[in-house]
Design goal:
Helix content is 43%, strand content 18%. It is α/β, with parallel strands linked by helices. The chain starts with a strand and ends with a strand. It binds zinc ion.
């Protein structure tokens, strides 16, 4: 059973403590990828950046005789020169990329165990996005058989090495769900979502959201989830918000090789930079010209910014502002904005994971109208009991004492009893004065909901100021007035 303790939660994201044979690490965590053939930044040095765990490819070590022999003799930690926990990948990526893996699932698992990997990964079959269904299903069946074999070879609770259950299924969300469900039934120490690298490369982030959600909702809540191949810092807020805990980064080195400079909002060509917009140890001590000339400096900057972003994500979980961070990051790219839009489709699900009380939120854009707090508020409108005469108003005015109940309307929440004016979340959340239509729409939908719930129980007056004029839902509300007879639609023009 996994030793994973969740300490803070926000949206579906969490800060956790994962126990490995080489000590505890804090999640969400980014695992730099170490290629034992070309070590550019030494494992010991990676600690300075903030690395707590590494990932390497067991197949690359296995394939090369001298590396294999040394790893078997001294162990993977000694080979890489670190005492940090190490996760080993099995060669699935090579299988996907070069189709030349000459090792069986059992063999590579046994090898990972013998070299002392902290997290072993079975040899799953990644299926490319948008493959045909038959292919995706066929590959998934093989992956599931290999997971079964892996669990038999490495029974739970019998060894120090952890075992990861990989989720595949291409872009078919039902296959992803099935894959996750069956992996969860077998029971793994952690789970890994694979086969998404081509989606990341093509910036198909909305589809990535679908895949993560389909997987996550079928995986155990108390196990960490690794998102394979998502090493770009601009994705961390989004992926963590959806419940991913572990990431690997080869990106820092790959982008550097390609003369690309990572930022938490995207990628820049180093050749196009006039100045370095970063204050990491590399950028503070070197010029643009020096970074243009040195892949190592560029890789080092990329790594600093990668760890910085993960710390920012963690801080926002701790303070309950992950949605705001996600919204800000997703504004950097149209394809990330598509992903944010897609997340709002899952607001009801996310609301179930989200902690019920946190700090007041800031309304940043119309996406904020679909935050879990707003969904939760709408779900709880049935807690308000009303009778006799009720005023629902967008503005407080004198002379309202004659009503038995007064509800104020605050976008995007909608109606709330005036007594709750100072309380969380409605009273305390900060909303801009110039509010957008989406927030008004959600607010008025909740007015309609309140009216429908209390049909026949009270006499309602709905009063709105002229900033609401022309909203199509006002007509809907007036329709209910006619239907319900006891609602009086009263328009104050001023
Ligand atoms: Zn920098």
């Amino acid at each position: 059973m996994t030793n994973f303790e969740i300490q803070h939660k926000d949206l579906m994201g969490r800060i956790g403590k994962l126990c490995t044979a080489h000590g505890y690490i804090e999640t969400p965590a980014i695992l730099p990828v170490i290629n034992p053939n070309i070590i550019s930044i030494e494992a010991a040095e990676l600690k300075h950046y903030g690395a707590e765990m590494l990932i390497t490819n067991a197949y690359i070590i296995y394939r090369k005789q001298d590396l294999r022999e040394e790893a078997l003799k001294t162990g993977i930690h000694s080979l890489l020169g670190t005492d940090m926990p190490i996760m080993t990948d099995s060669g699935s990526y090579q299988l996907y990329e070069y189709k030349d893996v000459e090792v069986s699932n059992a063999k590579i698992l046994e090898f990972q165990q013998r070299i002392g990997s902290d997290v072993c990964v079975p040899l799953d079959i990644p299926t490319a996005p948008y493959s045909n269904r038959e292919r995706a299903k066929g590959d998934l069946d093989v992956t599931l058989n290999r997971l079964r074999e892996a669990r038999n070879l490495m029974p739970a609770n019998e060894q120090a090495n952890m075992l990861a259950g990989v989720v595949q299924g291409s872009t078919f969300t039902d296959l992803r769900a099935d894959s996750a469900r069956q992996a969860a039934e077998l029971g793994f120490d952690l789970y890994a979502i694979g086969g998404v690298v081509p989606l990341l490369e093509s910036h198909d982030f909305a589809r990535l959201v679908d895949i993560i959600i389909a997987s996550k909702r079928n995986l155990p809540l108390n196990a960490p989830v690794h998102l394979f191949g998502a090493g770009h810092p601009m994705l961390f807020a989004l992926a963590v918000a959806l419940g991913c805990d572990l990431f690997d980064s080869a990106a820092y080195a790959l982008f550097a090789k390609d003369k690309r400079y990572l930022t938490n909002e995207g990628t820049k060509k180093i050749g196009n930079l006039r100045a370095l917009p970063c204050s990491c140890p590399v950028c503070s001590a070197h010029s643009v010209a020096e970074l243009k000339e040195s892949k190592d400096l560029l890789a080092s900057h990329n790594l600093w910014v990668t760890f910085e972003e993960m710390r920012t994500v963690k801080q926002s979980i701790a303070e309950g502002s992950l949605w705001e961070l996600c919204e800000r990051r997703c504004r950097a790219y149209p394809s990330l904005l598509d992903a944010l839009e897609r997340i709002t489709n899952y607001s009801t699900l996310i609301e179930k994971y989200d902690t019920a009380t946190k700090r007041p939120f800031f309304y940043l854009s119309h996406y904020s109208a679909h935050r879990p707090e707003v969904v939760r508020y709408s779900n709880r409108l049935n807690r308000f009991y009303v009778s006799h005469s009720v005023l629902i108003t967008t503005k407080e005015e004198p002379g309202e004492e004659k009503f038995d109940h007064i509800f104020l309307v605050k976008p995007p929440f909608g109606p709330y009893p005036v007594e709750l004016k100072e309380t969380y979340p409605v009273g305390q959340s900060e909303i801009p004065v110039t509010i957008d239509d989406e927030a008004r729409t959600v607010a008025l939908q909740n007015v309609v909901k309140l009216l429908m719930m209390n049909k026949g129980k009270a006499k309602f007056v709905f009063r709105y100021d002229n900033s609401w004029e022309g909203h199509p839902l006002l007509e809907e509300i007036s329709k209910h007035v006619e239907l319900m007879e006891n609602i009086d639609l009263h328009n104050l023009h001023r």
